[in-house]
Amino acid sequence: DAGITQSPRHKVTETGTPVTLRCHQTENHRYMYWYRQDPGHGLRLIHYSYGVKDTDKGEVSDGYSVSRSKTEDFLLTLESATSSQTSVYFCAISESGLAGNPYGYTFGSGTRLTVV
Amino acid sequence: DAKTTQPNSMESNEEEPVHLPCNHSTISGTDYIHWYRQLPSQGPEYVIHGLTSNVNNRMASLAIAEDRKSSTLILHRATLRDAAVYYCILNAGGTSYGKLTFGQGTILTVHP
Fold first, then answer.
1. Are B105 and A42 a contacting pair at CB < 8 A?
2. Structure confidence by residue, pLDDT tens digits, B61-109
């Protein structure tokens, strides 16, 4: 989707190294989310942000940290990558945090991370 | 969080209607029903959502049972491009900050 980009698209890294994934949006949406997707687990929420410098944990946040210093960028950092963090990571944005958000959520194309 | 139950897989023929069911018996009064789909090697894509009344948009229709314990996503004429994993999700109201909780979804196969 043109309004949200993730980088890199693919990355291979070694166990124990730090990794940062970037989500960039041009929609000026307030809410941003990081999900991971693994076979047999569907998508699971890692962290989310409800404004600049306002972030909180999702259901699988251990081993991950996030930062949002400006509206358009939401960074996901693996401080010391492990093989269990091999996954596909998706970023999502939303104009509203309300359940009845009429605009839906827009997802990026994903980052495939392999930790060897 | 309220859960949803969907069949693991369904099949359809091209140009025929498809009815994808979802059970959510523990839904609360403020939960919205959202549907997303995920095409191969892509991120999820918003399809439709509703609260109590049936909803229509250019992609699909959403039929919600009167007791709201189940819903059905209707694709009126399936195409090969509709082959995807379809997720039925309950989006809680209140201060949930719009977090989505995905289940396993239904894998839809469309035959030519």
1. yes
2. 999 999 999 999 999 999 999 999 999 988 876 556 667 778 889 999 9
For chain B, the residues whose C-beta falls within 8 A of a C-beta of chain A are 30-32, 34, 36, 41-46, 49, 51, 87, 91-94, 96-105
Query: Would you say B82 and B75 are in contact if contact means Cβ atoms under 8 Å apart?
Result: yes
Average pLDDT score over chain B = 90
How do residues B16-71 score in pLDDT, each as one tens digit?
999 999 999 988 888 889 999 999 889 999 999 998 999 999 889 999 999 999 99
DSSP strands (E only) in chain B: 9-13, 18-23, 32-38, 45-50, 55-56, 61-64, 70-75, 84-91, 106-111
Residues of chain A with pLDDT under 50: 1
Q: CB under 8 Å to A43, separation ≥6 — which residues?
A: A35, A36, A37, A90, B44, B87, B100, B102
To probe the interface with A, which of B99, B101, B102, B107 has the most A CB atoms within 10 Å? Answer: B99
CA distance A88 to chain B (A): 10
Which residues on chain A are in Cβ contact (under 8 Å) with B43? 1, 90, 92, 107-110
Nearest CA distance, B77 vs chain A (angstrom): 23
Q: What is the pLDDT of residue A100?
A: 65
